[in-house]
Specification:
By secondary structure, the protein is an alpha/beta fold. It has a single domain (2-269), classed as Ribonuclease H-like superfamily/Ribonuclease H (Nucleotidyltransferase, domain 5, 2-Layer Sandwich). It has 12 helices and 11 strands. It has helices at 39-42, 62-65, 73-79, 90-97, 101-104, 124-139, 155-162, 168-186, 206-212, 251-278, 289-306, 310-313; strands spanning 2-10, 19-28, 47-48, 57-58, 88-89, 117-118, 144-153, 192-197, 219-223, 227-232, 239-244. It has a 7-stranded mixed beta sheet, sandwiched between helices. It has a two-stranded parallel sheet with strand order 3-4. Helix 3 crosses helix 10. The chain starts with a strand and ends with a helix.
Length: 317
């Protein structure tokens, strides 16, 4: 059996709120693991890349699935059919999927008591139908969905890590590939394909790959603006890793993108709800630069009285 890991992020640009890096992992028979493997045709009864088709699950670019003010329904339609629990809470979600969440969120008071019931916008009947569709389609295909994880880095953790890297892009590469390494170590032995979106325009990744996967020499197969490809290991444990511009065209990475975006939106809901308790008239923020500056100016008089250090709130860049 061969394994696939797709990785993508949400929240790379904002100053407020976490950087979320999502990963989904899958298995396929060894004979299907080729450089041009595409899961969409193998799961065509289950997935689509358009929001117009309501009979299947849209898995694609999270920016298409989610627009500010439009709600989380499209993301929930993509994510929840793959998991067993029909109803979950924010705290349970983070404990289940977010790596080291209790440690990394401990400096952020806005996450302590927030516990929204999930899903927020997907009704039980629709979810039940989609879960049945997912189960039937996966049972009848050679593809197996194995799970998902996310690195959710609040400002405090983000800033600590950024001190160790020359750029934000280097931090993203390190965190994404460390997440891939953690998942790879949890999988049975077999061939592995890791697929990531490009990180901040970067084209060279061999150095960080060699650090995280030191047992074998990392071979550089291609490094270009469109794609960077690497491989290492013996035939029965061969690892192929690629970084692709617009990497969400690969289904595992597309679902990872949606998973990361959903997790970030949940954390921003928690963040905005906490500040609204202290400033009821404040307009919620998505955390992107211009509006983040507006939000910071409004809450700044409360930082010292509430004992909030700016480093816990504001991401450096």
């Amino acid at each position: 059996m061969a394994y696939l890991i797709g990785i993508d992020e949400a929240g790379y640009g904002p100053f407020l709120g976490p950087l979320c890096i999502g990963a989904t992992y899958w298995s396929v028979p060894d004979e299907l693991l080729t450089a041009d493997l595409d899961l969409y045709p193998l799961l065509e009864d289950l997935v689509t890349t358009t929001l117009k088709d309501k009979s299947r699950i849209m898995i694609g670019d999270s920016k298409l699935a989610y627009k500010p003010g439009s709600g989380l329904r499209n993301l929930e339609r993509a994510i929840f059919p793959f998991f067993e629990s029909p109803v979950i809470s924010f705290q349970r979600w983070m404990e289940t999927f977010a790596v080291k969440w209790n440690d990394w969120s401990s400096h952020s008071p806005w996450f302590e008591s927030y516990n929204q019931t999930l899903p927020t916008a997907l009704n039980p009947e629709t979810l039940g139908d989609l879960k049945q569709l997912a189960q039937t389609s996966l049972d009848e295909s050679p593809v197996s969905f194995l799970g998902a994880k996310v690195w959710c880095l609040p400002a405090h953790r983000f800033n600590l890590l950024l001190d160790s890297f020359p750029t934000k892009g280097a931090l993203l590469s390190h965190c994404s590939l460390t997440l891939a390494q953690q998942i790879a170590e949890s999988l049975p032995l077999g061939q592995l394909q890791i697929h990531c979106d490009k990180h901040g325009g970067r084209n060279q990744y061999s150095h960080i790959l060699q650090q995280l996967f030191p047992d074998y020499l990392v071979e550089i197969h291609e490094e270009s603006r469109e794609i960077s490809r690497y491989a290492w290991g013996p035939p029965e444990q061969r690892v192929h890793c690629r970084f692709v511009a617009k990497g969400e065209s690969f289904l595992p990475a597309a679902l990872a993108s949606m998973f990361a975006k959903y997790t970030r939106e949940l954390t921003m809901d928690a963040f905005n709800a906490w500040w609204a308790q202290h400033l009821p008239e404040i307009k919620p923020t998505a955390g992107y630069p211009q509006d983040a500056k507006r939000f910071l100016a409004e809450i700044e008089p409360l930082l010292e009285p509430l004992g909030i250090d700016r480093d816990v709130l504001w991401r450096n860049s």
